[in-house]
Amino acid sequence: MSSTKRLGVAVLFGLGTLLALAALTSLIIAMLLKMTELDEANLAITIMILAIISMIIAGFISGLKAKVRGWFAGGATGVAYSVLVFLFNYLGHSQGLSGENMLYQLGLIAASMIGGIFGVNSAKKE
């Protein structure tokens, strides 16, 4: 398989993993908010930590699948997710990208890149 095709497949696997993890964590957070006395302000740091962990896992899967250039595979996965989040916010909520949001997304992309580096280093060499 060519390196470009392998990288594309790796990014899709990472993005699929990330979307599944995002759906799962959103469901858990929604259930916590509905069934307990907690409010969103109390869970803000927890949500951020879960997002970072999800990005690291998705980057790891991307790096594992890519087998080369894990930082690039993880970064591409993070950028693809950030673009999806931006489109959702812009088209669905008419919100642009603020400075705080941009820093948050850059941090998530960095976490995904770190996961990709770990994924490549743990992949078996052919």
Automatic annotation (TrEMBL):
Cited InterPro entries: DUF3792_TM (IPR023804)
**What are the record keywords, sorted?**
Membrane, Transmembrane, Transmembrane helix
Entry keyword annotation includes Membrane? yes
Show the coiled coil region(s): none
According to the record, the segments passing through the membrane are 7-31, 43-64, 71-91, 103-123
Q: Which NCBIfam families match?
A: TIGR04086_membr
- Return the protein name: TIGR04086 family membrane protein
